[in-house]
Design goal:
The complex is a heterodimer. Residues about 265-275 and about 280-290 of chain A have low confidence and may be disordered. Chain A is of the alpha+beta class. Chain A has helices at about 25-40, 80-100, 105-110, 110-125, 130-140, 145-170, 175-180, 190-210, 210-215, 220-225, 240, 250-265, 300-305, 325-340, 350-355, 365-370, 370-395, 480; strands spanning about 10, 60, 65-70, 75, 230-235, 345-350, 400-405, 410, 420-430, 435-440, 445-450, 455-460, 465-475, 485-495, 500-510. Among the domains of chain A are: about 25-80 and about 105-220, no CATH class; about 400-510, Immunoglobulin-like, CATH 2.60.40.10. Chain A starts with 9 loop residues before the first strand and ends in a 5-residue tail after the last strand. The relative contact order of chain A is 0.10. By secondary structure, chain B is mainly α. Chain B contains eight helices and three strands; from the N terminus they run E-E-E-H-H-H-H-H-H-H-H. Classes of the chains: A alpha+beta, B mainly alpha. Bound molecules: iron/sulfur cluster (2 copies). One iron/sulfur cluster (SF4) binds near residues 234, 311, 322 and 323 of chain A. One iron/sulfur cluster (SF4) binds near residues 106, 110 and 322 of chain A.
Chain lengths: ~525, ~290
């Protein structure tokens, strides 16, 4: 071992200079980038009138006031199941999209991809396209390079600050916070959050880029497990493209390449391990149809040059590929120029590969997207969504929760009657103070006593919660006083609107001590 | 494995480390170098942290760290901050009369919450965390009071305690052990009368003679009607609440040997505001008068 050169256990990052590309998917990605970034940066500035005492910000996470405002929806802490429901929907939605379209999240919607794209746009604008950037990279620190780099970093920094800044606006009234931020009156935590998010945006979007996806993000590993034979994903039709080569000598070159590849043993893979597909020996691959003419790939490397993660899709499906589909655009462009049909690199499903190799045509996109698995995911997703919608519109404007006091279970009063105590929380979601009437049902012998209040009504402040101790009393020798436990129901009624809500509880009778 | 470093795994085309265990080879997919540097950075950070913050345990303390940070100091600062925020309401609690601290007074809830803390720290050992008491320790939730359940009465009980010999103003009474004066039969008769008073099953004939014993011996404190006397801490014998249990055996035991509890004076240990707070707390537990 010691006589040969030591195995390199660590590798330096290879710089990547993605070339500009245009086409169907690039256009789609520009739109998605515009819409998602627009939503992110602008949402906190949307105003929404909720009346005099409530914030007028459309979307606001009010941590201090413990409210989440989403336009006309207002969520209280005890309704956090909405958030849980939305997260579950996001999860099932990811299952759905991944089983239909592979890592489409990574390629189009992930913030890492979107911001990297934005940073690349800036980089290209300032330093030029691929070749210019490569030259600049190789050159020493000339004044020009310094100038360009500084300009690029400054723009990146501006974007980063705006990104970190936009985040905190979701947590406070945006115009006020902006003024406070500028006059240095905002809370330290706001500056701290902005600083951290600025730093991560700058580093992740400007420098780490594909390293995040390849080495840090857990999603690719999880998503890979959700793909199946019918999943459409970006792939190279090597049965159509090979043997590849340039110009008239393509055939000879291809033969020589094949021979030398045979001599060298298995092909040395890309920069990251290839994913062996079930049922296929990657060293051998699928049986090639006998062909005596060159394939469609002219080996122009356009697909490699545009790739933001710097891989060659022609090596097969790879762990590093985020399925951004830019190589499809690049290749389609080339095919158009040499007069061949588009789609040498395309969204292809594994089952289609088998079909096409056997000379059949592939299934339509819809046959891949609409199948039992995706329908099941869609159904599940919709059911959760409907349940949440129902919960949202069915929830009352008033609410009661009851926590029985269990230390002690009951108290004997001097006349022998039995008293249970309950901590009751009354929530008033109306924008004005309301009197609430509390009643107890379950046994005629039970009577209610509200601690500190002589009436049966409790005033509850506007848009707030009142905490009230309530006693339920059973006279001596009545049924509930003698029974071990009696089911009871607390009713609360908004005296003004007549709205009612209830919660069930239990009354403990006298048990032997 | 002597072939050197250029070995490749035939299946994946990945370089191997050259390690081979019974034909199983270890593939080498190089980690990015920045990962290594990040690891070194965490070590440097760790060292810096040890220097800046309290870290290494010594015999009786830990190294203090250059920044002088301590969780204790931070808690103190937080408490000071909360105290400052509560200064106004605390001042009102300190200056206001118990009687004026109505339920809607801003200092009322502050006092009750503070009183709950005082209660948990000092009172719950005997009266229980839920204030339900135990055999021999009064239940503070019910509507029966030995020495009175008004705010002032509760405050006096807390401040001076009961039957202790440290406070001259402690509430005081002592029931004699009637086993020394009365015959067993007389005690049994009196017991039947007490059972009758509280509406329990009793022997009517014995109770009739017990009434005489009661009038002679007990009524001076427990009153002729048996409803007790709060001046003397003499329990109401007609109600359903029994400090030592209301069974025949227990009543005989009480009459024969006498029973009474002791409570320390909290005046020397709690400050005035704490006494006020715990009084408000106990008063609102469900039996305040
Ligand atoms: S790998 Fe992770 S970080 Fe990269 S695009 Fe996919 S989800 Fe985003
Ligand atoms: S190979 Fe590169 S360019 Fe093609 S989809 Fe994957 S990440 Fe995008």
């Amino acid at each position: 071992m010691s006589d040969s050169e030591p195995t390199a256990l660590y590798a330096a990052r290879e710089p990547i200079f993605p070339r500009r590309v245009s086409g169907l998917f690039r256009t789609l990605k520009w739109w998605i980038m515009g819409v998602t970034l627009g939503i992110y940066y602008l949402t906190p500035w949307i105003r929404w009138d909720r009346g005099p005492n409530l914030p007028d910000q459309g979307v606001l996470i009010d941590l201090a006031g413990r409210r989440f405002y989403f336009f006309w929806i207002e969520i209280w802490p005890h309704e956090l199941y909405f958030v849980a429901g939305l997260l579950i929907m996001a999860g099932v939605g990811l299952f759905l999209f991944t089983s239909a379209l592979g890592r489409v999240w990574c390629g189009y919607a992930c913030p890492q991809t979107v911001w990297t794209d934005l940073f690349l746009l800036v980089e290209r604008w300032i330093e030029g396209d691929r070749n210019a950037r490569m030259r600049l990279w190789k050159s020493g620190w000339t004044p020009r390079k310094i100038r360009l780099s500084l300009a690029k970093w400054a723009l990146w920094m501006l974007i980063s600050v705006a990104t970190g800044g936009a985040w905190v606006f979701y947590y406070a009234d945006a115009p006020t916070l902006l003024r406070d931020l500028i006059t240095l009156d905002a809370a330290p935590v706001a500056y701290f959050t902005i600083m951290i998010l600025t730093g991560t945006t700058f580093v992740l979007g400007g420098f780490m880029r594909e390293q995040i996806c390849i080495y840090m993000c857990p999603w690719p590993r999880i998503q890979a497990a959700m793909m199946d034979e019918e999943t459409l994903t970006v792939a190279y039709r090597d049965w159509r493209g090979e043997p590849r080569g340039k110009g008239t000598k393509r055939r000879a070159l291809a033969e020589r390449a094949a021979a030398s590849a045979q001599a060298a043993g298995p092909r040395i893979g890309g920069r990251s391990p290839r994913i062996p597909m079930p049922g296929i020996d990657p060293a051998v691959g699928m049986p090639e149809p006998a062909r005596d003419e060159p394939g469609d790939c002219i080996d122009c490397n356009a697909c490699v040059n545009v790739c933001p993660v710097g891989i060659d899709i022609r090596d097969g499906q790879q762990l590093a590929c985020i399925t951004c589909a830019l190589c499809i655009d690049a290749c389609d462009d080339v095919m158009a120029r040499i007069g061949k049909p588009r789609g040498l690199i395309d969204y292809v499903a594994f089952s289609d590969e088998k079909r096409e190799r056997a000379g059949q045509s592939s299934l339509s996109v819809w046959r891949h997207v609409l199948r039992p698995r995706t329908v099941a995911y869609t159904t599940l997703w919709s059911l959760i969504g409907l349940a949440l919608l129902y919960a949202l519109f069915a929830r009352p404007e008033i609410d009661i929760t009851v926590a029985p006091v269990r230390n002690p279970q009951f108290v004997v009063l001097s006349d022998g009657s039995i008293r249970n105590a309950y901590d009751v929380r009354l929530r008033n979601k109306h924008g004005e103070d309301r009197p609430f009437r509390i009643q107890v049902a379950g046994d005629a012998a039970l009577r209610l006593d509200i601690e500190g209040i002589d009436a049966t009504q409790v005033p509850v402040p506007a848009d707030d919660m009142a905490h009230q101790r309530v006693y339920v009393i059973a006279s001596a020798n009545t049924d509930p006083a003698l029974a071990d436990a009696t089911s009871i129901r607390f009713w609360v009624e908004d005296v003004i609107s007549g709205e009612r809500a209830y919660q069930d509880s239990v009354f403990n009778g006298r048990t032997e001590q | 494995m002597m072939e050197g470093r250029t070995d490749r795994d035939p299946v994946t085309g990945t370089e191997t480390t050259g390690h081979d265990w019974d034909g199983i080879q270890e593939l080498n997919t190089p980690l990015p170098r920045w990962w290594l540097w990040t690891f070194y950075l965490t070590i440097v950070w760790g060292i810096g942290y040890c220097i800046a913050y309290p870290a290494w345990p010594l015999i009786d303390r830990a190294t203090a760290g250059l920044l002088g940070y301590s969780t204790r100091a931070e808690v103190e600062a937080q408490i000071a901050k909360v105290d400052a925020r509560n200064a106004e309401v605390a001042a009102r609690l300190a200056s206001a009369d118990l009687a004026t601290l109505e339920r809607d007074d801003p200092a009322y809830h502050y006092g009750v919450a503070g009183g709950a803390a005082v209660f948990r720290a000092h009172c719950s050992q005997c009266h229980g965390a839920g204030a339900a008491g135990a055999l021999g320790y009064p239940n503070l939730l019910d509507d029966d009071w030995l020495w009175g359940g008004t705010l002032d009465a509760i405050a006096a009980t807390v401040r001076h305690g009961i039957r202790n010999d440290t406070d001259d103003d402690a509430r005081w009474s002592e029931m004699p052990a009637y086993g020394e004066f009365l015959e067993v039969e007389q005690i049994a008769a009196a017991t039947e009368f007490v059972l009758q008073l509280s509406g329990q099953a009793h022997d009517a004939q014995l109770a009739a003679s017990g009434a005489v014993v009661f009038a002679d011996e007990c009524a001076s404190c427990h009153m002729e009607s048996g409803t007790g006397d709060r001046e003397n801490g003499a329990p109401d014998l007609t109600d359903a609440i029994w400090l030592y249990g209301g069974s025949r055996e227990s009543i005989i035991e009480s009459i024969t040997n006498s029973r009474f509890g002791v409570m320390p004076a909290w005046g020397p240990r709690l400050d005035e505001v704490e006494i006020k707070a715990v009084t408000l707390y106990v008063h609102q537990l469900g039996g305040g008068e």
